[in-house]
Amino acid sequence: MRLSRTLAWLALVVLAPSLEAQITSEEYAARRAALAERMGDGVVIAFGGREPVRHWPPFYQHPAFRYLTGFLESNAAFVMVRQGGRTASTLFVEQGNARTALYNGKRATLDEISERLGLEARYNDELHRYVESLIAEGLPVYFVPDVQSNEYSTSDSLTAGRNFLRGLVAAHPGLRVSERNQWVDELRAKKSDAEIALLKTAADISSRAHEAAMRAIRPGIRESEIQAVMEAEYRKLGADAPGYSSIVGSGPNSTVLHYPAGTRVAKAGEVVLLDVAAYYQGYSADITRTVPVDLTFSPDHRDVYEIVLAAQKAAERVIEPDAPRSAPTDAAYDVLKDGLVQLGLIESVDASFDAPSGLCPGAWANDDGTCPQWYLYVYHGFFHGIGLDVHDPSQFAMGDRRFQPGDVFTIEPGIYVREDVFEDLPDTPRNRALIAYSQASVDRYVNIGVRIEDNYVLTTDGLERISDVPREIDEIEALRARPVSE
């Protein structure tokens, strides 16, 4: 096992440059053709990412724009026109500048873009006039928002694309522009073979980074040092960047879902939660492990960890083509709820508490306005797609909400025992009974946050786990015992 993994590292280092062109211009063209079929006659406008204005963050192309064009330079726009069964796609790009080229390198020429991407290319100074001519023909206008993540598309109103369209609407009273994120999301939800290959590479590189952290963690190490170990490892193996802000939480910070790596020192007797993964050729993995600061798990750590791992495995067993999204969710929850009862943290799987305003969203609340007690320790979803965005569209989140071949996603159950778990609860008879029942167990397991997250691809043959970081307790302890020098 160890030899094969070492060979995998060497293969990544040797082969990484050849993997850069896995998604061909033909595949990009097929994506655009599929989008055209969805829209009928009309105009689709999409803007890419803008040139960063700080000194000097790296530029990353917006996922939807990259999906449709494969163009990785800043300040670009894409316009697709479909009329009478014919489709024309044009990429508008920033013209090169001899002065800025000294700082940022030369921009691709129009001929280079056309040859490489199979797209007609023009300079940005023609964009406004071109779009005006299409509006004059009375074609409906659709817009793909220029955002890094769909999760923030409705709150980001100041993008270059929205400003451009706002000007068009002001100049043409009565013009209606419809956002069509959904069209592109439906295409992105099913991953192609080339995309799956890139995601497998991202997951493999990320897995090696987690192993490097497992070897390095000892009492006295800072969260930021662990982050540095992991990011150095996956950059060494060819990754472009973090897929998202690295989450490294030790002790009490392990119970904060998105705790950014800070300067806290990890102490003996604690656990460290590592939610860190690499961004490779535009595609992001998403892996979490929870490891002891000492070389072995304590009995209390084991109690919580084994429940979370059992929940993940329960979800794995029920995922197959056409399985409803609810099936693995229910399977994981059944294990977690029973486990919380065993730990003494809740009175029963059906017990409830009176929640303060804002703590328990409507989707989680009971019909009588109370909230289930398990929600105090389990308060996030267990699945999401991965791809060009770390939270990428997936088939099981659309339509009839069933898993289908081509879904690539995470399974990530967790339990988090916060020291302030009862702090904001209203003083009611129901809550007083809960606290009296479970306070001793909270004190026992306090500041233990455990999440286990792996990446998967679903094929017609079944479910494949594509992240291979050790997750069994004995495997983790065996790796932790090895000298760092190895």
Q: How large a portion of the residues is in β-strands, by DSSP E? A: 15-25%
Give the low-confidence spans: 1-21
Number of helices: 14
Q: At the first level of CATH, what is the class of the largest domain?
A: Alpha Beta
Whole-angstrom Rg: 25 Å
- What is the number of beta strands? 20
Question: How many structural domains can be distinguished in the coordinates?
Answer: 2
Mean pLDDT: 92
- Describe the oligomeric state of these chains in a short phrase: single chain
CATH second-level architecture of the largest domain: Alpha-Beta Complex
- What coarse outline follows from CA principal-axis ratios? globular
Defining traits:
486 residues, alpha+beta, Creatine Amidinohydrolase, Chain A, domain 1, Creatine Amidinohydrolase, 6-stranded mixed sheet, 4-stranded antiparallel sheet, 14 helices, globular, disordered N terminus
